[in-house]
Amino acid sequence: MAKRDFYQVLGLERSASGEEIKKAYRKMALQFHPDRNPGNKEAEEKFKEAAEAYEVLSDPNKRARYDQYGHEGMRGTDFRPFTDVNDIFSTFGDIFGGGFGGGIFDEMFGTQTRQRRKSSTTPGSDLKIRLRLTLEEMATGVEKKLKVKKWRPCESCRGTGARSGQSTITCPACNGTGEIRQVSRSVFGQFVNIATCQNCEGEGKVVKEPCTTCQGDGRIQGESTIKVNIPAGVSEGNYIPLRGEGNSGRRGGPPGDLIVVIEEEPHPLFTREGNNIILDLLVSFPEATLGADIEVPTLTGRARLKIEPGTQSGTILRMRDKGLPQLNSFGKGDQFVRVNVWIPKTLTSQERQLVKQMAASEHINPGDGDTSAHSDKSFFTRVRKASS
Known about the structure:
The protein is an alpha+beta fold. Among the domains are: 1-117, DnaJ domain (Helix Hairpins, Orthogonal Bundle), CATH 1.10.287.110; 270-387, Sandwich (HSP40/DNAj peptide-binding domain), CATH 2.60.260.20. It has helices at residues 6-10, 18-31, 41-57, 60-69, 85-91, 93-96, 104-109, 112-117, 135-140, 285-290, 349-359, 379-387, and strands spanning 127-133, 142-153, 168-170, 179-186, 189-196, 205-207, 219-230, 239-242, 258-264, 270-273, 276-283, 292-298, 301-307, 316-319, 335-341. A hairpin with a 2-residue loop joins β10 and β11. α2 (18-31) runs antiparallel to α3 (41-57). The chain is elongated, with a radius of gyration of 32 Å.
């Protein structure tokens, strides 16, 4: 089923301010909160739908991309639809007042909401690695195998942290809530201080007899080989999130994510500017004077380039669609070739005599109307002018 427009989901105009977006989301979250609609699948889906709309529209960068491209514009970003309402509470702690449904919902639904949303396990942390790619790999896309050192579930106890045949028990200090509440009174009234239970570290359970392999942690250090598909058209600074490929959580906790950050390997021939690439090409004086059909390198092989007679040093030639593709879209950049006339450093006596004879010709020396290819304008300015 096609997704509804995010502005329509929250009942907003496209010109709505950030505060109006937040206010509309709070209203819908309150209306369709699972505790207010127990067992109502339709309300739960609307709760998730509103959260997805808020995640995009509350972020200026995502909102700008969505306004321009719609739902298709969310491809290639870190936006992912919510599949679990628990993820919504942990993601939007500023809206709900806490990571597990607290704040305004604690007041309406009581402390049971907080206890039910509290995970009994500790999630694993995210990992970030940097992956260097060549321009050729960025142009065509590539599959890479990455060796990652990370925390993995202990095979001896299957991630439980308990010795084989044993199990965890409810923490006697917090009775399984993961929290310790201390009530104090003063002339200003009653105060409740809530702190993480130190006995179970907030998990609500403790291991009766720890596993001897992992010492009760439920995980050990290891190395994994992970495949990652790099799409064509990525740039330095782009990142690819691999869900669930980060560190495993303690005692069966859900794994974190692996974030692959793209870096560009310097190229010996090409310089990148956006989706365009620049190539410096040396040609001989006869080739520049008489014209030539030359084979030049591109990111996907070699191609023919025509040098017109009388081509000046510094001339920029354009090879259409020989650049990098647009990420998650159609179209390609171009390859710009900057022609440089090669001047030999050594000559034989015969060659020197021939050059002297040519120098005597009026067509060899620049005339009054000729201008130098080396102007004050930068090279990239001239590239943009050539592409317009």
